[in-house]
Hints:
Elements: H1 5-24, H2 27-36, E1 41-42, H3 43-47, H4 54-66, E2 70-75, E3 78-83, H5 86-121
Antiparallel strand pairs: 1-3, 2-3
Amino acid sequence: MRKSTAQNQARNQAEILDAVFGALADVTRRSILDRLRGGALTVSELAEPYRMSLNAVSKHIKTLEKAGLVSREIQGREHSCRLETARFENAMNWMSYYTRFWSVRLDALEEHVVNKRRRARQ
């Protein structure tokens, strides 16, 4: 049986979010992203502050690439990485739904508590 386009899009969106949040779960990868906010850097430049091999940093970068958070441009032997923002926007849109959801719930809880206190005082 063939899956509908909507189901495929939902699965794709879920896979994208899994990759983004998985990539963001690691402190080194978040640090790499922070460093790329200032502009493109080579893999060697990205590796400088970390106490790990260039290969280990490269694996972190590959995870960020797979998540769509970083792109890599290769010129000869030099690999330059740059921050990509589209997937961040997807993740923020997903999270904003839950921000609104919890905001409404917390507002309702606050109203309930205030009303309960008022009734208790009467």
